[in-house]
């Protein structure tokens, strides 16, 4: 797939037409490509547990995060409501010596390891399945495709494509590196895995590892390796259920067009119905996969069932 880098509008329209899934699962669909992840696929994923070793693929949710306030996104703020000090001083008013601690967290739902819901991105005022964005997501939230509808379903066969190690240098890709279909295919072949219908695909670039080594810098929104716009056909043709990366924005940044912002999102979410994860921590899992040579595993990554949300923090768990 070649790109006219001067005409993002036309390229996005062509890709949306070629790789769209509107109506594929009926007019009332709320799950998009998660429809590919059926009971048989979950049984297949569960059968991959051999050693019982597990990995959390989430960053920690705390003030030491990547956000810098863009579009009012902040890092999580964790506050204690009751503490051990309150209990020790007898300030809680409970009988027979019992005490406790409570806490609260305030955070944008997409400030760290997260899923982009189907109501997160629109294409010319249209949400997933061709719905009117103005009537789908209002000040009351996503009235149709709120992420709560996905909560029972995100569990199945996970596949790690460690492009950073297969294609990159010292396990990392440079900023601005566009991962193509050829890179994804070559990585899958190097790992001895096939990617197909219903899979939950994880793409490691090494960008998070670099941020941890050098500091957050421009991790949130700045230059980064990521998927090329030209992978839209691969994302559609493979019929994967979801895809997640260790980067802030999933696709390569700067984007591949002049005067464009996240064009692959514009095709993948509202037109394809693809579930996209960002800022996942894939390093420990990748190290284990490299050691035992197994790049497939059971993966469960349920979003929080927050009614009407267009995204959700998540603590994905991979089990091998």
TrEMBL record:
GO terms for biological process: L-tryptophan catabolic process to kynurenine. GO terms for molecular function: arylformamidase activity. It comes from the Bacteria. This is Cyclase.
């Amino acid at each position: 797939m070649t790109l006219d880098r001067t005409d993002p509008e036309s390229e996005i329209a062509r890709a949306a037409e070629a790789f769209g899934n509107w109506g594929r699962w009926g007019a009332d669909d709320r799950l998009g490509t998660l429809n590919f992840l059926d009971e048989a696929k979950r049984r297949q994923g569960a059968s991959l547990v051999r050693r019982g070793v597990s990995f959390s693929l989430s960053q920690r949710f705390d003030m030491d995060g990547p956000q810098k306030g863009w579009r009012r996104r902040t890092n999580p703020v964790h506050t204690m409501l009751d503490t051990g000090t309150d209990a020790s001083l007898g300030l809680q008013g409970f009988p027979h010596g019992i005490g406790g601690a409570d806490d609260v967290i305030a955070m944008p739902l997409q400030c760290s390891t997260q899923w982009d819901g189907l109501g997160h991105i629109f294409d010319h005022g249209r949400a997933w399945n061709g719905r009117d964005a103005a009537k789908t997501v209002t000040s009351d939230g996503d009235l149709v495709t709120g992420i709560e509808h996905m909560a029972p379903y995100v569990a199945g066969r996970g596949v790690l494509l460690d492009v950073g190690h297969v294609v990159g240098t010292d396990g990392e890709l440079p900023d601005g590196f566009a991962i193509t279909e050829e890179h994804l295919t070559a990585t899958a072949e190097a790992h001895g895995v096939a990617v197909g219908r219903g899979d939950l695909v994880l793409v490691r670039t090494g960008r998070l590892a670099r941020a941890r080594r050098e500091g957050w810098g421009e991790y949130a929104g700045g230059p980064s390796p990521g998927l090329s716009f030209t992978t839209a056909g691969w994302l559609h043709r493979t019929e994967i259920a979801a895809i997640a990366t260790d980067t802030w924005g999933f696709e390569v940044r700067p984007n591949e067009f002049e005067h464009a912002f996240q064009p692959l999102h514009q095709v993948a979410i509202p037109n394809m119905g693809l579930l996209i994860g960002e800022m996942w921590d894939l390093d420990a899992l990748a190290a284990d996969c490299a050691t035992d040579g197994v790049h497939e595993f059971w993966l469960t990554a349920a979003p929080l069932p927050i009614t009407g949300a267009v995204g959700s923090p998540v603590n994905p768990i991979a089990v091998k």
